[in-house]
Amino acid sequence: MDYSCGLGPHFGGSLKRSSNIRRSISSSKYIGGIDWHLRTQFIEQAKCLDLKLDIDCTVLAELQEFYRRRAVVEQEYADALVKLANGLKQRHVNETSKRPHWAPYTTTTILNTLLGSTLRVSEAHALLSDLFAKQMVQRLVDMDEDAVRLHKQCREMMSACQERVLISTAKLQQDQREYGTKQLTALEANRQRRRAEEKMQLAAQKAKSKNKDPKSSQRFLRAQNEFSSHPQFFLLLRSQSNVCCILRK
Prior knowledge:
The chain has helices spanning about 10-15, 20-95, 105-210, 220-230, 230-249. The protein is mainly α.
């Protein structure tokens, strides 16, 4: 299984093709580009969050002003209805002596009903004005405070998450650099191993050409000792173990 997640070449293939070193280096540069891209995105996210707060506060302020003016309009309308109904009612009362026979007629009943309904409509608009001026405006003020508080909480959470992402990215960069170093060490060890194997093969072929046992040939024994005791091979084994540990993190 490849634990590199596409950020570095697989270790097994890197021992066969030295061109994978360039891939490792380019991967490190790619991760550095990711870090810059992430910081740019984080700045844009903060700007979007601030812009949302600005829009919310602006709209809420406009709504508050709207309902304040609407309350004034409703109150003025209620006062105008009261003035209209009371004026007509008072004039009718003042002229009652001149209209002694008006009460039984349907038209008089309709007039009184209209005046009563007008006063009730006036009361409804006065109540609506009070509702807009007090409860509605206060609710919008509370919403504005909630928006500011939520923005602060979101900003703190966003900053904490962004910080964790940047720390993880920095750790990934460090692991990638260590991976590249171990990969170069493994490639060098593999080159030394092939050279020692070639020496052993040449010594064995030369011993066979002289009808000698390769194991008794001094040249073969020296090549075998070099192959077995070369420190690069221990580095190769340790590099393989370390790289596997890095990729599994």
